[in-house]
Amino acid sequence: MRELIRRIDSATPADRDRAVDALRAMAILGVVLGHWMVTALVVDSGVVRGDSPLHHMPEFTPVSWVFQTLAVFFLVGGQVGAQGYTAARARGTTYGQWLGVRMMRLFRPVAVLLAVWTLAVLVMLAFGVDGVTVYTLCKRVLSPLWFLLVFAGLTAATPLVAKVHPVWPLAMVLAVDVNRFALHGPGWINAASVAAGWTVPYCLGAAWARGRLKSRATGWALLLGGTAATAGLILWGGYPASMVGVPGQRVSNLDPPTLAAVAFGLAQCGAALLLLGPIRRMLARPAVWAVVALANLSAMTIFLWHQTAMMTVTALGLLAGDPLPGLHTVPDSVGWVWARLAWLPVFALALLLCWAAFHTYEHGRRQDRGGAGRVVHQGRPEPSTPAPRV
Questions:
Q1: Phi-psi category of 238—alpha, beta or left, where left has phi over 0 and alpha has psi -120 to 50?
Q2: Angstrom distance (rounded) from CA 332 to CA 31
Q3: Among 35, 55, 122, 138, which is most exposed with the fewest C-beta within 10 angstroms?
Q4: What mean pLDDT comes out for the span 156-171?
Q5: Does 222 fall in a domain?
Q6: Is residue 386 included in any domain, yes or no?
């Protein structure tokens, strides 16, 4: 293990900003833990239905504030995308070549996930599994993929988006919310917020790549301003307090992103920028950096398969006969929360097995099959970097 840590540390370029990788890893971890904590699969008369503790316990809402970390992911995506495109152009790489590599990295593991789940659906239907159960499971797998489409679109538009000031997509979200809540206008306009809402942190990331956002005053302004705006919109604007969708709730802050969700994302981006210094000092320790580097090498695999891991454990738990607390029961009590926390290590073990089976598809063919993977240079493979061997 010490040799692996040494190799990873020595293989990392000296000019690499390790904090960027740490923020990406934290964002993915937040999404995974958030889904595991607020997604419940309730078994009733042999049928599996979706539920959420946020529906039964409003006091559980602050969990959504901690684990809804997508804005940080788009912030990092904008920084990496803009920086990577600039570096690619300097090397003489065409836009098409640059985009092709990034799209392949995004959608190759998605294709594997869809292929596996297509087979799983056919098997479930062949064995007479109820249609409601099949729909519930497929929805849990497919619904997190929406953000990859948005991210892919923003990545493709990086040369243009990098020149856009964040205030313009923010104004678009405001206009959509006015149309939606005040004017009760046509619903098709709401789709504009799906792209505009996540363009705001992506634009901030692009500005970061251009050398801006370095002032701590900027970080504090985003953090305090975003927090104040979010609190005001929730307390006096009628926006939901939860930063994720809640079953049965009339309005979701994420479908499409509302002004409250964007303001909350700005606060998260401000906090991320303020934490860069402490994170960099922490990542100077080779062992800590090794964990972050390895997590980044498998970020897509972790994101794509974490729901499958949870559902696999839930399905195997049915073999016990009686519904298991925190796994098959209605999430309507503190007891369910404690039981679900106890299941998290089991979910993690199942995810580790999924990783072992599918992580090779994230990077495609490797020159060194015995390696732990290549260090990723701010979001793109760095072929000249030696791979650490396990």
A1: left
A2: 22
A3: 122
A4: 92
A5: yes
A6: no
